[in-house]
Specification:
- The chain has helices at about 15-25, 50-60, 75-80, 95-105, 150-165, 180-190, 200, 205-215, and strands at about 5, 30-35, 65-70, 85-90, 110-115, 135, 170-175, 195.
- By secondary structure, the chain is of the alpha/beta class.
- The protein has one domain (about 5-215): Alpha-Beta Barrel (TIM Barrel).
- An eight-stranded parallel beta sheet has the order 1-8-7-6-5-4-3-2.
- The termini are close together.
- Bound molecules: D-xylitol-5-phosphate (DX5) and zinc ion.
- Its cofactor is Zn(2+); Fe(2+); Co(2+); a divalent metal cation.
């Protein structure tokens, strides 16, 4: 299976969002990654449900929603109503993680858990079979265009070993600093899904940049 590419809309041109969604629709991208920030869990604010709902009306690919917000359990229905296919919540933002994952899956969405750079993989060892996707943050969440934290590669390998030991189908997603240099290393370590923002939207030809990631 080739790697899944999920371009992050955070680095798109917000004045011409329709143009960038059309680019995603016509490109080899598999999903569209959307970053919601609350200014409390992370020190930044991005966009919210009304924007996602508008995007979902023209988007022809699965919406991969990354909620960098406190109390994500309060926003399951709204995330579903925005057309999300994947609801990714932070381990650090959710006290009753197992209950919340069950509630997300009951809606038909895929349930993802995201780990900050300082959160070890082993906090998920007892519930890994209940998680559709684990997303490793390879930068501190809140901003696009940051440098890749190299120790994330070791973390991906640890997560891969955990998934194999437990014989489950959990996919590994990596978010932050993904580019032409880091992507091959991440795939080699066991990454299934690459999130990439500034590398794709900041490139001269996003179509060929997406194609080059898919070809790895
Ligand atoms: C950061 C977001 C990322 C961001 C990645 O908090 O979760 O999805 O858009 O941006 P790049 O690819 O530029 O590091
Ligand atoms: Zn993200």
């Amino acid at each position: 299976m080739s790697v899944i590419v999920s371009p992050s809309l955070l680095s798109a041109d917000f004045l011409h969002l329709y143009k960038d969604i059309e680019m995603i629709n016509n490109s080899d991208a598999d999903w569209l990654h959307m970053d919601v920030m609350d200014g409390s869990f992370v020190p930044n604010i991005s966009f919210g449900f009304p924007v996602m709902k508008a995007v979902s009306k023209v988007l022809k690919k699965p919406m991969d929603v990354h909620l960098m917000i406190k109390h994500p359990e309060n926003y399951i229905q709204q995330t579903l109503d925005c057309g999300a296919a994947i609801m990714n919540i932070h381990y650090e933002a959710c006290v009753h993680l197992h209950r919340t994952l069950q509630a997300i899956k009951a809606t038909g969405m895929k349930a993802g858990v995201t780990l900050n750079p300082s959160t070890p993989v082993n906090v998920l060892e007892d519930i890994i079979g209940d998680i559709d996707i684990v997303q490793i943050m390879s930068v501190n969440p809140g901003f696009g265009g940051q440098s890749f934290i190299k120790s994330s590669l070791k973390k991906v390998r640890k997560l891969k070993a955990l998934i194999e030991n437990e014989h489950c189908n959990t996919l590994i997603e990596v978010d932050g600093g993904v580019n032409g240099e880091t992507a091959p290393l991440l795939i080699d370590a066991g990454t299934d899904i690459l999130v990439s923002g500034s590398y794709i939207f900041g490139s001269k030809n996003p179509y060929s940049t997406i194609k080059s990631l898919k070809a790895l």
